[in-house]
Amino acid sequence: MTPTEASEDEAGAPPTLGVGMVGYAFMGAAHSQGWRTVGHVFDLPLRPRLAAVCGRDPAAVRDAAARLGWAAAETDWRVLIARDDIDLVDVCTPGDSHAEIAIAALEAGKHVLCEKPLANSVAEAEQMVRAAEAARARGQLAMVGFNYRRVPAVAHARTLIEQGRLGTLRHVRVTYLQDWLADPDFPLTWRLRREYAGSGALGDLGAHIVDLVQYLAGEPIAGVSALSETFVKERPVPTGPSQGLSGSGGGALGPVTVDDAALFTGRLASGALASFEATRFAAGRKNALKLELNGSEGSLAFDLERLNELSFHDHTERAVSAGFRRILVTEPEHPYLAAWWPPGHALGYEHTFVHQARDLVEAVARGEQPAPSFADGLQVQRVLAAVEQSAADDARYTPVPAPR
Ligand code: SOE
């Protein structure tokens, strides 16, 4: 696929990459921020143009287009993906429509960025991988939006691991804790309904930490053993407009059909042991993604609530002075940082979407497969499915006799 030609009045500027986005709620706004900003910060071989955004409600999508910086608004995603001025389709809808939109966009000759988790089931994810492979043969690219890979400290952790600074990996422990469901009156939004979201904390938060572990360790999770729970089984149905993370409930109660929390252990292909926790009920924890990796030669720790920092312990140093030290990942030598502010100036959550756009635009310009690919997204989906299967399997849960 050739990116749309640069317009006459901008002779000398790099060619345009027309972007179309489906969905404009929280993730749509975050991706828009990435597309709007990326060309102003990074020196890119292609210039993203925010050609059109799509949503079903005509007034709301027109408003979103104006607010988020899109040149046009569409109400039918099939019309959006057919537009000649769109080279890349960014799918920011709930999971139940990822497969249909992404596959149709690939078949229409577009590159695709799809929000995480890739799909609501392994079967859908497999279809998406097949479509991406067929499109790849035609020169199109597909990527899944696991944005936390693009936190500079996380990318730097990956570099240190690739350089062998941890030696043989022994342990991974990772938690992703939020608390927005702790209130039992929080309404039954789409994120609490299996038919839209696929799963609950598992697919929403667990998908991120599964991806991060496989990315950082550079190897797949080979098996899992899990528990999950839905603490609040019914919630008020939203009466007015609602989004996944907001809305107000009415009188009637409806069933919550996803997990509220999932807890699992796993073994990586190399034999390292891993533990995972994903919940939306950890009162006081807002967006607390913490991970630690321990290897024979050293350890790394990261906390999303302090995302400019990485803790590193070099176990080859003399014990008398060894210990965890805090690396402030704000220097031009660190991933993505040279394009931003002078040394020592911090970044935040929104920058991960700018970096995501940067990496995808570079990959499109080079014609190289970006990471994480749809195949990586499928691998995450397989782990999530194994967790659900294990959690549902009572035979593997060993009850402890009650005290007399
Ligand atoms: C809600 O739990 C949520 O917005 C997730 O859907 C995102 O993927 C995560 O980055 C922040 O929390």
The end-to-end span amounts to 71 Å
In total, the number of strands is 16
Quickly give the structural class.
Answer: alpha/beta
Small molecules (ligands, ions, cofactors) in the structure: alpha-L-sorbopyranose
Shape: globular
Report the oligomer: single chain
Percent of residues in helices comes to 25-40%
- Uncertain stretches of 5 or more adjacent residues: 5-9
Question: What is the percentage of strand-forming residues?
Answer: 15-25%
Helix and strand sequence: EHEHEHEHEHEHEHHEEEEEEEEEHH
Average pLDDT number? 95
Number of helices: 10
Q: From the alpha-carbon coordinates, what is the Rg to the nearest angstrom?
A: 22 Å
Biggest beta sheet attributes:
8 strands, mixed
- Major sheet: arrangement of strands: 8-11-12-7-13-14-15-16
Organism: Streptomyces tremellae
Protein name: Gfo/Idh/MocA family oxidoreductase
Keywords: Oxidoreductase
Pfam family, one: GFO_IDH_MocA
